[in-house]
Amino acid sequence: MSKIEAFQFNPSTISLGNNYLLVGGDPYLTDMVSDMIRHKLRDKYQIDLIIMYGDEAKAAQINDLLDTLSIFSSSKLILFRNADLMGKKEMECLSNYFDAPSEQQTVVITAEKIDTKLSAWKHIRDNCMVVTCDPPRYGKAMSSWLNKELARQGKSMSPKTKDLFLERIELDYADAANELQKLVLLTGANKQISELDVMNSIGSSRAGTQVDFFRSLGNRDAKKCIELLNRMLASEWEPLQVLFLVTRFYNVVYRVLILMQNRVSIADIKARYLKDVYQSQEQTYINAASSYRLEDMVSVFEALLETDARLKSSAGSPEVILTMGVLAMLEKS
């Protein structure tokens, strides 16, 4: 068994007869790797692509699919999606294939997670190249992704432009890829993407609005908060989705306040305790902590809980409930 991360996967190593296990919860990375395999095998061989879903697969189907060559092609690419949803009998059928895999077909298996305590999963893992497809857990992962994507697209950004781009996207590869693709189309033949390009493309987008919303929460600027809140709701953000962002924001602010009370330096807070936010956004949370006290967090979290309960149970307007909740969080005691 060999194991690599999705961004380290090299298409030049793809060959018919090789088998792959893509493990992780990020659909963008899973699709990226499976598409590489599909395109490489399609270009090099006359392959049939067959897709089977774990929650629909039956043992007899799996056996027929793996043991029978197509009458139209001598080569197959078989993609088992969501294999972790397979039943025990189906998993054993899939595992048994790897006792004597065919050199005329490639099997790609995707799963959010696997249990290697089960002999079937252990056997599959030991006979496949394992590619981890985990979602980004901290801002630096997005920075690494951006550098690789810019090189692949033949584009470049200054360090300041990269920071501007990264602070205006969500911690999500699919969202980031979508925003970068818009920039690539906007800049056309230009190799350099400028700060102005980023602002023109993302400045008024959902991600851009989110960054400004965080800043207004940190400044306890009620007027600006409500303006941006209304903009997000008008852009088809779900009220509970917005509340999730607000909760995440205050969780980080609370963490910073506790660290500051324990005399942890600002430099250490940034270096050691804010790895789940973009480096360019670290100062936003540090500044926010200067606008709140630890005592304020009691009323903030009470307002968060009350707003969450009202959104899930009340027949009232979600927009009004969310607006009143945010105003309660911003109120100074």
Main β-sheet description? 6 strands, parallel
How large is the count of helical segments?
Answer: 15
How many E strands? 8
Which class of secondary structure composition applies to the elements? alpha/beta
Low-confidence stretches: none
User: What is the CATH C level class of the largest domain, in words?
Assistant: Alpha Beta
Give keywords.
333 residues; 56% helix; 3 domains; Helicase, Ruva Protein, domain 3; alpha/beta; Rossmann fold
What's the gist of this structure?
This protein is of the alpha/beta class.
Task: Explain what this protein looks like in three dimensions.
The chain is 56% helix and 11% strand. With 333 residues, it is an alpha/beta fold. It folds into 3 domains: 2-132, 3-Layer(aba) Sandwich (Rossmann fold), CATH 3.40.50.300; 139-202, Helicase, Ruva Protein, domain 3 (Orthogonal Bundle), CATH 1.10.8; 207-330, Zinc Finger, Delta Prime, domain 3. The strands form 2 sheets. The protein has a 6-stranded parallel beta sheet with strand order 1-6-2-5-4-3, with helices on both faces. Helix 3 (88-97) packs parallel to helix 4 (119-126), helix 6 (159-167) packs parallel to helix 8 and helix 9 (206-218) runs antiparallel to helix 10. The radius of gyration is 24 Å and the shape is globular. The model has no long low-confidence stretch (mean pLDDT 88).
Question: Can you lay out the helices and strands and say which pair or pack?
Answer:
Blueprint lengths: L1 E4 L14 E4 L3 H18 L2 E7 L5 H9 L7 E7 L6 H10 L7 E7 L7 H8 L2 E4 L6 H15 L2 E2 L1 H9 L5 H15 L4 E2 L1 H8 L3 H13 L3 H13 L4 H23 L4 H7 L9 H8 L6 H18 L4 H13 L3
Parallel strand pairs: 1-6, 2-5, 2-6, 3-4, 4-5, 7-8
Helix pairs in contact: 2-3, 3-4, 5-7, 6-8, 7-8, 9-10, 9-13, 10-15, 11-13, 11-14, 14-15
